[in-house]
Model the fold of this input.
Amino acid sequence: MSVSLLPCTPQECLIPGPAGNLEILMSCPKQVHTVPMPYAVICHPHPLYGGAMTNKVVYMIASTFNVLGVGTVRFNFRGVGKSTGVFDNGLGETDDLRAVVDWLTMDYASSELWLAGFSFGSYVTLRGLRDLDASRLLLVAPAVDRFDFANLQLSDIPT
Done:
């Protein structure tokens, strides 16, 4: 399995996921500070309450990362937008995150992986952190009263 050196290309597409297709949206920085550049995968808020990759906070996180020279991938969890499947209380959504990271690492050269999540997306991001080789983590408004964070631990990466 080789990594191609595809340049970051703004795109919206469907990729295979564990419950069907996952809708992704890639955005790219205007200026790249490191080659290969880091990429951030950003998880959105709760799907049953209108959360989607187009959420304004998720958009602002992606835009800010792009200004910093980081490529971003936002995606819709299963059952949201064009992504197929049904809500799975964070379990299946963690598998969705893994599938997006696998797609990114197979098709794009990256100097490092950053993970970010907003609200429910923070929960999913933290659930997937152990299995993914992320070098940075951003958790915005983690829904600690709604989901069981007790067995989830931060690592020693910048958070």
User: Anything to note?
Assistant: The chain has three helices and six strands.
